[in-house]
Amino acid sequence: MYQSIENTTFMIAIVLYIASAVLSLLSVTGIVKKGGKVATSLALAGFIIHTAAMVARTIGAGRLPFSNQYEFALSFSWGIVLSYLVLYRLYGFSAIGAFVMPLAILVMGYASLQSKDVRPLMPALQSYWLTFHVGTAILSYGAFALAAGISVIYLIDERKKDSQRLVQDPEVSDMLSYRVIAFGILMLTIVIISGAIWAQKAWSRYWAWDPKETWSLITWIIYAIYLHLRLRRNWKGRAAAWFSIFGFISVLFTFVGVNILLPSLHSYAT
Amino acid sequence: MKKALSLIASLKVAIALLLLITIYIIIGTLIPQHATEALYQANYPTLAPLIDVLSLDAAYSSPLFITLVILFIINLTSCTLLSLPSQLRRSRSTYMPSFNAESEYRVEEQDEKLLRAYLRRKHYRIIADEDGFSSGKFRWGALGATVTHIGLIVIFIGAIVGNIASDQDMISLLPGSTREFEEYGFSINLDDFYLTFEESGAVKQYISDLTITNDDGTIRRQSMWVNNPLHHNGLGFYQANFGWTSNLLIRQAETGEELVSGLVRNGNTYFYQPHHLNIMLYGYFPNMEIDVNQMPYSINNKEDNPFYAVVLTQFGVNVGSYIIEPGQVIPYEDIAITFTGSTPYTGIVVRSDPSYPIVVAGFIILTFGMFMSFYLYPRFIFYKDGHLYAVSGKNGWVYYQAIKAGIKAQRKTGKQ
Q: Inter-chain contact B200–A120, Cβ cutoff 8 Å?
């Protein structure tokens, strides 16, 4: 029963997200006037239904949906939409949805290609660290996706006149992208640290240069370079925006690429 | 000297080193580590000499990588030390940044009384001056970057200590067997080792019941499983793997007299000297199936359908291959060969690593430092000529938004 609820709510959430993204895109391109608020409402409705899908999965599996590629993609896209909605609540920028919702849809699409079978946790995953480690990864990855979306807005806005801009002051999108990345890297730090502590308990070593942990470190270094250039060299604007997008590509590679291309201790995450 | 020091501590050098380290570790993830030379020759014929020269086959312990990391530690440490005096100065409780009305965010709020009430509620210390007042908070947040860097340095120190002082061994124990750790003053006995299963037949957990006997005679009993290691007298015991040991029995065919009784692991061979016979246990399959190539395999580790695959050779010549049940006899000349049953043995990693507490301390300092940098950053208020300015360096806009929202809320409550 829970599987059927999960499948239905998953599909409804995708449909609502697509509607939100399309309306948001039509709104930012000026085809539909003042569609931003409706688009955000659709995203919120989709988010509630998406949450229901995760609850159904949680009840059906008897644990949080954090343990394989489908479950993580389900949670990752949830984290992306959550980040967007929180930012909208704080600052009211609905245009961001046009660039963030497609990322959420993309990750949901990836989830739909994965096996949805509920499998019991293998011994190494039977730990309370799983919740903490993956939970913070969802927040971190969601934040980086949001930052990449805001950076795209910056790159579009900087070429436009004031009246045509998606966010009136490009400096604001530049600043927001930085603040969201700051949150993302703090969460990523906790992801890496909790993973290291967990690895110490499970495999006797806190660091083993496993491809997944190594690529998480690479992503961390990329964003650390971004922050240093920004805070110490006042590196802003276009270069910072491209760096933020580049950082998110590293996030995606850590999430998908490593699983497909590199054999890893994290091979259960398939 | 001063120039050299500032170059060593410079951000340019830090970024260059971080980029080099990143490129190096990316290469390390793409090239298989600790493989044989033949594999590199076969898979990367043109790159093989470079892999050899740069030790890319053991990328993370290669001299080049270690040099890069050491240079980065030097850069990080010198940068932290050089910037500390200015950060300490900015973290003093009396510090106020220079103020330029043109370049700061201005909050359109004229009601000084309301502003003062809001700032008092938020625990700002207000200092009156000729044009109005000023105030500051979280000045010590200026030390966030230093604390973050110290956290990283502590982690690096921990990693170095770990590389020098950690020691690791792998032991296999059968139920009932004991291992001495004389240097650490105790012995460990495996009372039992067993697997628990999910409904699907997949292994749920590997559990070792252990008894530790200290040299002073005191005894400690504890079970250990994956994610639940055992620590004793500075040694950590970690459930790592398991395997099967099978009981080989050779009898005189006619009389039934027991000639040999011993344990054989999968893939191992017992040499029966009187007949120059090699008895190889190709594998024990606790729940056997036959695949499309007619080869045996085990669906899982539940002993629901156990079989042994055995290969006999004599003077290098195959004299028979068999798939037999436990207790089933392989007749060979005047002897009868059987496998009577199997017992799982546990593989335990034994590790001493004095670096772990250091690294954990580094983790905590690093996380706290980052939290300070991003959320407890110094923030200042200037009230000049009837205008309020929110000043917070790189976080100015976010702080300005927070102050605007806070004052709006204060006005709603009407508290002054």
A: yes
Chain A CB contacts of B25 below 8 Å: 209, 214, 217-218
Q: What is the pLDDT of residues B243-278, one digit of tens each?
A: 999 999 999 999 999 999 999 999 999 999 999 999
Residue B229, phi then psi, degrees to nearest 5: -75, 165
State the pTM of this model.
0.89
ipTM of this complex prediction, to 2 decimal places: 0.90
Q: Where in chain A is the domain with CATH 1.20.120?
A: 1-117
Nearest CA of chain A to the CA of B394: how many Å? 7
Q: Identify the weakest region by mean pLDDT among B122-136, B303-317, B359-373.
A: B122-136
Q: Which residues of B touch A218 (CB under 8 A)?
A: 22, 25-26
- Residue B396 pLDDT: 79
Residue B57 CB-half CA count within 13 A: 17
Q: CA–CA distance from B332 to each of A27, B97, B270, B329 (Å)?
A: 85, 94, 15, 9
The answer, for B360 touching chain A at a CB cutoff of 8 Å, is: yes
End-to-end CA distance of chain B: 58
DSSP calls for B324-377: E-TT--EEETTEEEEEEEEEEEEEEEEEE-TTHHHHHHHHHHHHHHHHHHHHS-
Q: Which residues of A touch B366 (CB under 8 A)?
A: 189, 193
Chain A residues near residue B21 by CB distance under 8 angstroms: 221
Q: Rounded to the nearest 5°, which phi and psi values hold at B55?
A: 55, 40
Nearest one of A100, A10, A22 to A47, comparing CA atoms: A10
CA-to-CA distance for A80 and A125, rounded, in angstroms? 24
Q: By the CB < 8 Å criterion, does B24 face chain A?
A: no
Concatenate the DSSP letters of all residues of A51-120 into one string.
HHHHHHHHHHHTS-S-SSHHHHHHHHHHHHHHHHHHHHHHH--GGGHHHHHHHHHHHHHHHHHS-----P
User: In this structure, which CATH number among 1.25.40, 1.20.120, 1.10.10, 2.50.20 belongs to the domain A1-117?
Assistant: 1.20.120
The whole-angstrom separation of Cα B195 and Cα B302 is: 9
